[in-house]
Amino acid sequence: MTASGIVFGEVNHTYRPMRGRPVLALDGVSLEVKEREFVALLGPSGCGKSTLLYLLGGFLPVESGSISVGGKPVVGPGPDRGIVFQNYSLFPWKTVKQNVLYGLEKQRMPKAEREKRAHELIELVHLNGFEDSFPSQLSGGMKQRVAIARTLAIEPETLLMDEPFGALDAQTRTLMHEELLAIMRRTPKTVVFVTHDVREAVYLADRVAVMTARPGRIKEIVDTRPPHGDRVNYINTPEFTAKVDYLWNLVRDEAIRAQEAHDA
Amino acid sequence: MTTTNNVFVRYLPLLLLAILWEIAPRLHFVDPSELPPLSAVAKAWWSLLLDGEGKTWLSPFLNGSLWTNGVSSFINWFFGLGGSILIGIALGVMMAWSRTVEDVASPLVKALYPMPKSALIPVMILWLGLGAGSKIASIGLSCLLPVILSAYNGARGVDQTLIWSAQACGANQREVLWEVILPGAMPDILAGIRNAIAISFIVLVASELLVGQRGLGYLISFLGEGGVYDAMFAVVITVSALGFFADRAYLYFMRRTLVWRE
Known about the structure:
The complex is a heterodimer. Chain A is an alpha/beta fold. Chain A is built from seven helices and ten strands. In chain A, helix 2 crosses helix 3, helix 2 packs parallel to helix 4 (140-153) and helix 3 crosses helix 4 (140-153). Chain A is globular and about 55 Å long. By secondary structure, chain B is mainly α. Chain B has one domain (63-261): Orthogonal Bundle (MetI-like fold), CATH 1.10.3720.10. Helix content of chain B is 78%, strand content 0%. Chain B contains ten helices and no strands. The mean pLDDT of chain B is 89. Chain A binds chain B through residues 54, 57-59, 76-79, 81-83, 85, 87, 89, 91-94, 102-103, 106-107, 134-137, 147, 150-151, 154, 156, and chain B through 159, 161-162, 164-171, 175, 180, 183-184, 186, 259-262.
């Protein structure tokens, strides 16, 4: 197993709300993600895909089954696994630059080096000139670019993304897709990307793991790599459309089941 | 031009009140011995401010001037409010942080919250005597609850993903507490402190009115009992003005601190 390969082995997870009955969120999920592979977890809302990501991040305790990164079991959060959330989760009292610097400070990087690195990252996400702005002064897309810069700054081997572009408008989302792919070309990483957007999953990921409605299981894993390795023009090819159709049909049944379970 | 107009319009009611206060006693709409005209109050205020002694028949018995009483009130206020802010933030954040602390403290806080704050004063006098200690304790305990509750609510309201983001950057528990929870709770905490400031003035004056030989509250009751109403009103106005300016100054500080919110 390589340094940042991820193995989920028979992971179960039960939510125990303060009121009401416990809910089985994940039911025997097994999945391997190879080093530098981009895997999307695709499924209807409430299928437990975010839960799986939080378990991998070490934010929730693994109660049943096992999760390992680079052969080591996950026991808690760590700087080897960076995470980007849908709600950006920037420190609102810190400026753009202070947000990007945060992880570097935690890593005890020397000041001069820290400043240089923050500058590079802000440049990477095209936010030059906004260093001293507060998150409340930025648009959604800009906020998410800050969050990505903050996470990439400490060079995690694994990048966890929890519906990172779900709150953005369609045009911004497309631009962010292109930007993310460009960043991944420059600094390749193992990525686990949670989404309920089929096109997004096919466009970004090497493989897409489709999850069932609650309790979440892996229904099918689909290879979505572009046939000739050309991801930029992938979106205009019949292969792309075929993959999206195929995945949509898989997700559709689960989405309907999730809806029925919700209405019941 | 517009601004001048606005300022004028805004303070017009205050000005009308002042004029009414001057005219009504002079024309004997009200008894001037019960409500002296504003000019008399201003004169009494000036003499209290200058010296405090030798200006009225009561002065030889008066324990200090507006200044000395103001200073002793300030000390009670400062330590009472300051103590409640430090302890209140610590307790409130701990309640949000630890389930055990929450289980122990939450029922107490909820039971004590609706208690009239001034009811504490006689108890504190019984326990701590007539001096500054009972006053500081009364102010401190009265201001404690709004600070605790605001810190508790603020800390509980900090977004879970913000804490997780910090942890994924390598922050430990202590760093999460100081660098995420505390600043995240700050808007609520600052609002709670503003309430505490308002309460602190009420309890400060009330505790000094009740018993004591020092402070602005003592001055009000002493002058009132001696029938020197112009001087008494002067002290009442002084306390109101101090409360008003303390709130304004605090509001300015709060806006400066929370500049990151839009």
